[in-house]
Specification:
Elements lengths: L10 H9 L5 H19 L2 E4 L1 H16 L10 E5 L26 H8 L3 E6 L33 H8 L5 E6 L5 H7 L2 E4 L19 E6 L2 H11 L29 E5 L9 H16 L3 E5 L7 H16 L18 H12 L2 H14 L5 H21 L5 E5 L15 H6 L5 H6 L3 E8 L5 E8 L4 H15 L10
Parallel strand pairs: 2-3, 2-4, 7-8, 7-9
Antiparallel strand pairs: 1-3, 4-6, 5-6, 5-10, 9-11, 10-11
Helix pairs in contact: 2-3, 5-6, 7-15, 9-11, 9-12
Length: 489
């Protein structure tokens, strides 16, 4: 293989070549940066790059490998969504208010990646504070879908999805509050997993909505997703919502057989507004699962219609509380023209935050205010319980739920900018997993007539990521599109 093509490898392929001594981590990392140099001006997937530090870590990985001490991800180049604290790189959250912020510590997931020997090449673009479905809300430029210039990547982990799709990193880390891993994974033709709430530590993840946020992997294939899950999962005493359960070997779940498994198909997810090409790809995927030995069963999730309304009360309410810390006092942007403390608060937040963030803070503050709390936030929390109970009943009948990820393939940048409701509805099929705290993932399964990727969503019971990986692996083996990458020149 030519040196310049190492960037096209999967994590598992590159790991094998490193172990066999056929390539070095330095060669692999240099290949990634040559790819970034070639296509980043088209894709715009990174906010910050660390070429110098990456090569130092690659040299260290090669050294430890020669000593027989290589970690699970030893010497493998990975991108990280710019919402996880990194002590050696700025963490902006895609916002001007944190443009120059370098955290004094590493997030637990970053610490796990470092200890596994990963080479973090940079921080990827994202919607500001993870608020968005297209990555158009990033203060540092809008990434473009590698499959079609001028089209959205999805959001809010759009930069992570784009950099993996464009071979600018072998894998990436994203975060998912209402579909922010799965939706861009589907639109960019890669694999993305939102683990069960509590499976992966949120310590050092800059909070948007604390009861919904979850960190997860974004990869070129299902095997890489399982490998990444092995590394980042596990209990963390620094995260009060972390669950102390043993972590299985997720790679062992990848068996080419679904005998004895029941797949549920929710009638509510195949309703008006679903693009016919998306439905065709998903129905085809269901047939693949049947061929693999799974039993297919129609199920109902009756409170699906309430998910968007519930989410857009709970998430902004939690954001309103979480983002109160950005006041210009302790860290982040401060307006130096202000003459009084109140004036400084107002000007710093007005200038530092973008429009979408300010809108959600206002919605959340209103929903939590005296006289409205019971009518809005409390009611939304009660309906959230009903949504969770829907899934509990569903998983008494099936092991995995299969559905579309998003109602349509990717659309043009700017196309839905004047219609916030249309943007919010693009998350209608992914939000429920966050409200219920269950794991969900997207696996590539086909393409639209315009050549845009279409993924299939899989959802499972709490802490049953293995069932999702096994099901996704079987779709991947049968869909016949594994390894297809966009032609970026």
């Amino acid at each position: 293989m030519m040196d310049m093509n190492y960037f096209s490898l999967t994590l598992c392929e590159a790991k094998k070549l490193l172990q066999q001594g056929e390539i070095t981590s330095v060669q692999l990392t240099e290949s990634i940066f040559s790819r970034i140099d070639a296509v980043e001006d088209k894709v715009k997937s990174f906010i910050t790059l660390d070429r110098e530090g990456s090569l130092v870590r690659a040299e260290e990985a090669d050294r430890t490998r020669r000593q027989g001490r290589a970690g699970e991800l030893g010497g493998l180049p990975i991108g990280v969504k710019d919402v996880l604290c990194t002590s050696n790189m700025r963490t902006t959250c895609g916002s001007r208010i944190l443009e120059k912020f370098v955290p004094p510590y590493d997030a637990t997931v970053i610490d796990k990646l470092n200890r596994a020997g990963a080479v973090i090449v940079g921080k990827t673009a994202m919607d500001e504070f993870a608020m968005g479905s297209t990555n158009e809300n990033c203060a540092f430029g809008v990434p473009e879908n590698p499959w079609c210039p001028g089209y959205v990547t999805g959001g809010s982990s759009g930069g992570s999805a784009a950099c993996v799709s464009a071979d600018e990193s072998l894998a990436a880390i994203g975060s998912d509050t209402g579909g922010s891993i799965r939706q861009p994974a589907s639109l960019c033709g890669i694999v993305g997993m939102k683990p069960t709430y509590g499976r992966v530590s949120r310590y050092g993840l800059v909070a948007f909505a604390s009861s919904l946020d979850q960190v997860g992997p974004m990869t070129k294939d299902v095997s890489d997703c399982a490998l990444m899950m092995n590394v980042i999962s596990g209990y963390d005493k620094r995260d009060s919502t972390s669950i102390n359960l043993p972590v299985p070997d997720y790679t062992a779940a990848l068996t080419d057989d679904l005998q004895g498994m029941t797949v549920g198909v929710p009638v509510e997810y195949f309703s008006e507004g679903l693009d016919p090409e998306v439905e065709q790809v998903v129905r085809s995927g269901i047939d693949m699962l049947k061929d693999a030995g799974a039993e297919i069963r129609e199920i109902s999730l009756p409170h699906t219609d309430y998910c968007v309304a519930v989410y857009y009360l709970i998430a902004p309410a939690e954001a309103s509380s979480n983002l109160a810390r950005y006041d210009g006092v302790r860290y982040g942007y401060r307006d130096m023209e202000a003459e009084t403390l109140l004036d400084m608060y107002q000007k710093s937040r007005s200038t530092g935050f973008g429009d979408e963030v300010k809108k959600r803070i206002l919605i959340g503050t209103y929903a939590l205010s005296a006289g409205y709390y019971d009518a809005y936030y409390k009611k939304a929390s009660q309906v959230r319980t009903l949504i969770r109970e829907d899934f509990t009943r569903a998983f008494a009948q099936c092991d995995v739920i299969v559905s579309p990820v998003t109602p349509t393939p990717a659309w043009k940048i700017g196309e839905k900018g004047d219609d916030p409701l249309a943007l919010y509805l693009s998350d209608i099929l992914t939000i429920s997993a966050n409200l219920a705290g269950i794991p969900g993932m997207s696996v590539p399964a086909g393409f639209s007539s315009e050549g845009l990727p279409i993924g299939i969503q899989l959802q499972g019971a709490h802490f049953n990521e293995e069932a999702l990986l096994r099901t996704a692996w079987n779709i991947e083996q049968r869909a016949g599109i594994k390894g297809r990458r966009p032609e970026l020149g």
